[in-house]
Amino acid sequence: MEKSALRTAQVHHYDNRFMWQYFTVNTLAETLCFVIAIVCLAKDKSLIWQSMIIYLLATCIAEILGILVLTTTKNNNWVYNIFLVFETGFNNLMFFYLFSKYIKSKPLIISGLALFSTLYLLGLNDHGFMLYNDNTYAVMSIVYVFYSLYYYYLLIKDEHYLKISHSPEFWWVAGTLFFYFANTTCNLYEKKFEHIMITSTKNLTYFIFAGLNIILYSLWSYSFICRRWETTMSKN
After folding, report:
1. Which of 121, 197, 204, 233 is the most exposed place for a label (fewest CB within 10 A)?
2. Does any domain span residue 113?
3. Residues in CB range of 6: below 8 A, 6 or more apart
């Protein structure tokens, strides 16, 4: 995820002399979430939930590759442009799964994908592959906020009892909603935050998005644990 678990690597420079450059808040949070996903979802009967393992693996690879490319060529935007396709595809797949319990969601999801495809291609045509598709990411972040809120609306309307503290879907959406809503809000002030240096190499933007990543992957990890509980209880 661009400023999700990924592109925050661009806000400061890494020292080529040390392997420690690969041990960041983002990489550690993503790796831990990836490990929890393997433990909790590897034997899950739902391919959608199992796909979280593949998605998080792709996230970790993109993060490490982004750092590596940044230290050699100083331009890793193409890495995140590629990952943006994976991010959008997975998020829409998961929301399709969540919505399908309540509505016929194909028209909604297809519309979201069509919007992404249009903006993505227009962005590439406008500035090429070596500049990040910021506008596409910003618009899709708003779409994910809408999806999340709509899911909660459908959840409230549902008459079936739901124990929220043990609901994997609820906590997955909670992480997604919090991250993309805060991300969208912070993007409005990004230019100002970038000029506020907290350390000699890291600005306020880095710390804000690092914090958002921790929250995102913490809530997602908890959703995986809830999914494991749910699966175990259903077998018993």
Report:
1. 233
2. yes
3. 26, 59, 62, 63, 66, 80, 83
* DSSP per position, 36-88: HHHHHHTT-S-HHHHHHHHHHHHHHHHHHHHHHHHHHHS--HHHHHHHHHHHH
| 203 phi and psi angles, rounded to 5 deg | -100, 180
Q: What domain range includes position 78?
A: 2-230
The whole-number pLDDT of residue 9 equals 42
- Specify the long-range contacts of residues 13-16, CB closer than 8 Å, at least 24 apart: 13/70, 13/201, 14/67, 14/70, 14/71, 16/71
Interval 22-49: pLDDT, tens: 778 889 999 999 999 999 999 999 999 9
The total domain count for the chain is 1
- Assigned domain for 132 exists: yes
Helix extents (H) in 74-133? 77-99, 106-127
121 touches 174 (CB < 8 A): no
